[in-house]
Amino acid sequence: RDRSSFADGAFGGGAAFAEVTFEDDTRFTDCSIAGDASFFGVEFEGGPSEEEDAAFTRAAFGGSVDFRETECEDLGLAAATVDGSASFTGSEFGRIEADEAVFRGPVDLSHTRYTDRSSFVEATFEAEATLDETRFVSDVSFANADFAAGASFRGAEFVGGAHTIDDADFEAARFGDTADFKLAEFRYADFSGVEFDGTAIFVETVFT
């Protein structure tokens, strides 16, 4: 099968792809969607190649984006921008690469699960980021990420990979408001150089 590609496309309004199944690699690289975009319940099955199953690299979302209850082994959001809210709740991912992504509205990544190494290095969250009860089965990096309005990781589990040092890497990250890690569980965590401009909550947090 040929892969699906919307690369470099321009959607002048919104885009609705709810509950679509993409059986091969899918490209939305460098596309722009002026209105709201829905990928609710989408299955990005991906192909046999080593490329990302769903690539939204440098995509520009002018409204909100809905990735709730999505299934994807490899989601690429590097350098993407979202002007509205972004929701990923209830989704199952292998990995997400969102390095240098910019989220201007609230981001909800709560109740999501990741089974492979994910990365939000130098990502910018201009509004509140919620990652409550998120489960990272492999490593995740938020190194140099900017949580301008704070973030909540209540009850999040950072299980980590089998052969790495830092399961949860927050090195040099900045929290511009409250950073809530109540009831979170860590194995190896790196908070070196982190900036907490607001209250840092580690009540009942477990570091194993």
The gist of it:
The protein has 208 residues and is mainly beta. Helix content is 0%, strand content 37%.
Question: How many β-strands, per DSSP?
Answer: 34
Q: Helix/strand/pairing class, anyone? A: mainly beta
Mean pLDDT: 93
> C-alpha Rg, in Å?
16 Å
What are the salient characteristics of this protein?
single chain; 208 residues; mainly beta; twelve-stranded parallel β-sheet; nine-stranded parallel β-sheet; 37% strand; globular
Walkthrough of the structure:
By secondary structure, this protein is an all-beta fold. The chain is built from no helices and 34 strands. It has strands spanning 4-5, 10-11, 15-16, 21-22, 26-27, 32-33, 37-38, 43-44, 54-55, 60-61, 65-66, 71-76, 81-82, 86-87, 92-97, 102-103, 107-108, 113-114, 118-119, 124-125, 129-130, 135-136, 140-141, 146-147, 151-152, 157-158, 168-169, 174-175, 179-180, 185-186, 189-190, 195-196, 200-201, 206-207. The strands form 4 sheets. Strands 1, 4, 5, 8, 9, 12, 15, 18, 22, 26, 30 and 34 form a 12-stranded parallel β-sheet that branches. Strands 2-6-10-13-16-20-24-28-32 form a 9-stranded parallel β-sheet, with no helix packed on it. The chain has a 9-stranded parallel β-sheet with strand order 3-7-11-14-17-21-25-29-33, with no helix packed on it. The protein is globular and about 45 Å long. The model has no long low-confidence stretch (mean pLDDT 93).
